[in-house]
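Hi L.,

As promised, TetR family transcriptional regulator:
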Amino acid sequence: MARQNSPSAETLRERKQRRARDAIVGAAYALFAERGFDHVTVADIAERAEVGRATFFRYFGDKQEVVFDGDSQVDAEVVAAARGIPADEPIGDSLPAALAYLRRAVALLIERLTESPEEYRLHERLVAAHPDLRARALAKQRRYVETMTELLHERGADAATASLAAEVALACFYAGRAAVEDDPDRLARAVDDAFARVAGGVGG
């Protein structure tokens, strides 16, 4: 996904590295859109980005890694923002309170993931079409569960409540995404609707 940085905090070396990496990612996504993932090689990406193969492999192990570029940065930014969400009430063993918190945290994640709508669409289509990419995406989503569980523990949730709420939150994300396929403009609303339906059931 798209990367964002603070140029003022970068050294000249870091700026050059960022530009090279961004050029590789931009070239890869352009080629994937033009030719399809299976018909693009590392050599093609390096040529389009005007870098050597050695430079490509300095940043990425293979072309699959390019598809998930920036994930760590996005995750760190979202976690930091989620930690700043005001606590409405202590969570403890309250599943509604845990889900209310995660509803806001997941909204932050979606906002970040869909900052570049076209890149989001291409990313989702690439992942849906390729089993190896789907496997990586599933592993990433399982890490979301671990992160959400950790965030809930920080809010005082007990282990059982944190684990259940994190799994339910991921299910809401899946349900919303399935409802709108790869449309970033409707994703946030669809996921929030899923949370609302669950909240109605849990609260009732």
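DSSP finds ten helices and no strands in the chain.

Thanks again for sending the construct details.

K.
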